[in-house]
Amino acid sequence: MIRQATADDAPDLAKLHAEAFAEPWSEAAVRELAATNGAFAFTGDDGFILARAIGSEAEILTLAVKPSARRRGLGQALVQAAAAGAREAGAGVLFLEVAADNAAAIALYARCGFEPMARRAAYYRRRLGPPMDALVLRKTLTSAPA
Q: What integer pLDDT is reported at residue 143 of this predicted model?
């Protein structure tokens, strides 16, 4: 079940992020981003999405799903929740950045209706390995589900 996250969820969200990413965000970072103007988050038992809407645009800041829960529809449900939250906030477009080598995430976002619009060279600086380009993806929001 997907529900809107609150500030009290920050410790759990940080734990989920640590399970999903090699270079996770700290609890303080999650809490700080969730407190920014226009931020909103949705969570389920095995993942969460954090986004923010400002004016007519929204951005997915992170999507984290435990590896053991991937490919079961949770990521898509979280993206749909974020798209609905962005529409409710008045956004007409939803953006995100994804590492160019993250084929599974790119496929998920394509299924959710995102299209590539730009590439940022060496955007992700990694402790292990060379920097990775980011793909900037865009989805036009309508009154229909994501």
A: 58
Contact 60, 79 (CB under 8 A): yes
Contacts of 13 (CB under 8 A, 6+ apart): 5, 27, 30, 34, 41, 43, 48, 50, 64
CA distance 124 to 121: 8
- Is residue 5 within 8 A of residue 48, CB to CB? The reply is yes
| pLDDT, tens digit (0-9, with 9 covering 90-100), for 15-39 | 999 999 988 999 999 999 999 999 9
Beta bridge partners of residue 132, listed in sequence order: 124
**How many CA atoms lie within 13 Å of 71's alpha carbon, on the beta-carbon side?**
4
At residue 115, what are phi and psi to the nearest 5 degrees? Answer: -125, 145
- Indicate the helix (H) or strand (E) that contains 18: helix 10-20
Query: Average per-residue pLDDT in the chain?
Result: 94
Domains of the chain by start residue, with CATH: 3-140 (3.40.630.30)
Tell me, what's the pLDDT at 146?
Answer: 46
